[in-house]
Amino acid sequence: MASNLPPGCSLGDIERAFGTEGPCDVCKKATGDCICPECPLCQEQGNLTCYDEHGLKFSREQRISQAEYRICELEEMLDSARYYLDWIQQEA
Ligand SMILES: [Zn+2]
Ligand SMILES: [Zn+2]
Fold first, then answer.
1. How far apart are alpha carbons 81 and 69 in whole angstroms?
2. How far is CA 22 from CA 16, 39, 85, in A?
3. Nearest by Cα to 25 from 36, 14, 15, 17
4. In angstroms, what is the span from residue 42 Cα to ligand 2's centroid?
5. What's the 21 CA to ligand 2 centre distance in angstroms?
6. N or C: which end of the chain has fewer CB within 10 A?
7. Distance 9 CA to ligand 1 centre (A)
8. What is the Å distance from ligand 1's center to 62 Cα?
9. Which ligand has the minimum distance to the alpha carbon of residue 32?
């Protein structure tokens, strides 16, 4: 599929960078770059349950990374919606 995403912001790139492991559930960074602290209760890192149930709070860095990831996701959706529209228009 054609892509006209701005450089440096594409889920395709993210997927390539992450391989099959996928980003951290909490901070949305690659597993090796995860910035999540260890949970004092269960010693897990990057587990959303710890934020719901073990009293961990998102840091500023985590929230920034989550917001950046969300923007990438939305841009990807926007891009595919535009691509789809293009495709329909060219059908005529
Ligand atoms: Zn993390
Ligand atoms: Zn925990």
1. 18
2. 9, 21, 29
3. 36
4. 4
5. 21
6. C
7. 19
8. 8
9. 1
Domain ranges of the chain: 11-91
Compute the distance from residue 7 Cα to the ligand 1 centre, in Å: 24
Q: Which ligand is nearest to the CA of 23?
A: 1
Place of tokens 């996928």: 22
Q: What is the pLDDT of residues 60-86, one digit of tens each?
A: 999 999 999 999 999 999 999 999 999
Taking the model in full, what pTM does it have? 0.71
The ligand that comes nearest to the alpha carbon of residue 40 is: 2
HEC readout, the chain: CCCCCCCCCCHHHHHHHHCCCCCCCCCCCCHHHCCCCECCCCCCECCHHHHHHCCCCCCHHHHHHHHHHHHHHHHHHHHHHHHHHHHHHHHC
What are the pLDDT digits (tens) for 5-51?
445 565 666 566 656 678 999 999 998 899 999 999 999 999 999 99
